[in-house]
Design goal:
Layout lengths: L14 H12 L13 H10 L3 H9 L8 H34 L5 E2 L3 H8 L10 E4 L5 H10 L3 E2 L10 H4 L2 E6 L4 E6 L12 H6 L2 E2 L8 E2 L2 H14 L5 H11 L5 H10 L5 H13 L5 H4 L4 H9 L1 H5 L11 H14 L2 H10 L5 H6 L10 H14 L6
Helix pairs in contact: 3-4, 9-10, 9-11, 9-12, 10-12, 12-14
InterPro entries: NTP_transf_5 (IPR039498)
Protein name: Nucleotidyltransferase family protein
Pfam families: NTP_transf_5 (PF14907)
């Protein structure tokens, strides 16, 4: 039976966001009436929030004169130009980090950044990248940290840990170069745990080589990249159009959808890929083949509709603390994405000790195993004494 999905009500979005989507979707073909009564300051704000100003500038620059105020086009040009220089700087740094790690025999897969711009858009200047994200084997993490620190990077993540739970609760460390203004995120997992995902060895076997640099720079295979981008976007509620634009560009390629379906079943990421296809089709008119429709289910439909909350309310999950209504909605949304097995594993993970348990009741290292039976009581104690809740 053919898979279908319910259409999103894009009329709920602001006029500025609807115009932006139409421009991106049609490469500039929009009815003149759609440019009336537009708050252009809000339009610029949305372009920045959704990180799509590099793609918007070439589109607005070729529109009929008078449709878009000159100050708006100029503002987009300035942002476009600045982003181009930033991407060139990131590309140079990516090559340096890749060589640095390769010389120490650390296999490295770049997840996003310049390799994504070149692969999906064929042009560095058409996509933004805030930092460099890379994946390495966990056993090389300490070596990588020493190498980056030796080159002027400062470790920015200092999370507490007990009984090594950081290995699966977290998934990356952040390093900042104060002089270059560049951030490098070193991943040992693709996504936060708990949960199963492909091993580094599997991903390395399917790697691709970027044509951006003279020396080898490797990144994810096309199918692995699609699943990774889908899971990343889903985890953030697709609150930025740039992530959906990436899906739209990647879906144009000849992907092995049967393999993607097999992988998402194997690792229980059965919602993210179908949700990504649904949203991309609705917002960017992505062509959905019969194979792609096999990934669409009632659950992916519901998950796609749930993301309208983020688009309508201009949610920025990176701005802390989140408003209470957003925090509650996002927690429930994330839980709804999980399979039954993942939900059980997630709930069970709360029984594993947290660093705050050691703050509540300090014990010698040899007795840390006692935090397992003590955790429910420590949690109750914190609640009754109005301490921080994990």
């Amino acid at each position: 039976m053919e898979r279908t999905y319910d259409h999103l009500n894009l009329s709920e979005l602001s006029a500025e966001l609807q115009l932006m989507i139409q421009l991106l979707r049609t490469n500039g073909k929009a009815a003149e009436g759609n440019f009336l009564n537009i708050d252009w300051d809000k339009f610029i704000e949305l372009a920045l929030h959704h990180r799509v100003f590099p793609a918007l500038y070439p589109i607005t620059a070729k529109l009929k004169k008078g449709l878009v105020p000159e100050m708006v086009t100029q503002r987009l040009y300035n942002l476009f130009r600045k982003n181009t220089f930033q991407m060139l700087q990131l590309t140079n740094e990516m090559a340096l980090v890749s060589d640095l790690f390769a010389n120490e025999e650390i296999n490295t897969l770049f997840l996003k950044g310049p390799v994504l711009s070149e692969d999906l858009y064929g042009d560095l200047s058409l996509r933004t990248s805030r930092d460099l994200d890379l994946l390495i084997p966990m056993q090389d993490l300490r070596k990588a940290e020493k190498l980056l620190v030796s080159r002027g990077y400062v470790k920015d993540d200092y999370f507490s840990s007990i009984l090594d739970e950081w290995k699966w609760r977290h998934h990356h460390l952040t390093f900042v170069h104060p002089e270059k203004g560049i951030t490098v995120e070193v991943h040992w997992r693709l996504n936060p745990g708990p949960g199963r995902e492909p091993s580094f060895t599997e991903l390395w076997e399917r790697k691709r080589k970027s044509a951006l640099t003279k020396d080898p720079v490797f990144y994810l295979g096309a199918e692995d990249l699609f699943i990774f981008l889908a899971e990343h976007g889903a985890r953030h509620g697709w609150s930025r159009l740039r992530w959906l634009q990436d899906i739209h560009q990647l879906a144009k390629k000849q992907l092995n959808w049967a393999f993607i379906k097999k992988q998402q079943r194997r690792y229980q990421s059965t919602v993210a890929c179908g949700q990504a296809i649904h949203l991309s089709s609705e917002i960017f008119s992505t062509h959905v083949s019969a194979e792609m429709k096999e990934l669409i289910t009632r659950r992916t439909n519901r998950a796609a509709h749930a993301c309208m909350f983020y688009l309508i309310n201009l949610v920025n999950l990176h701005t802390k603390p989140l408003p209470k209504i957003v925090s509650i909605y996002h927690s429930r949304y994330l839980f709804s994405l999980k399979s039954l097995a993942q939900k059980c594993l997630f709930l069970i993970s709360f029984l594993y000790p947290y660093p705050i348990d050691a703050d509540t009741l300090p014990l010698p290292g040899k007795l840390h195993f006692l935090y397992f039976p003590l955790r429910p009581f420590l949690l109750l104690w914190r609640k009754t004494t109005k301490q921080a809740i994990t």
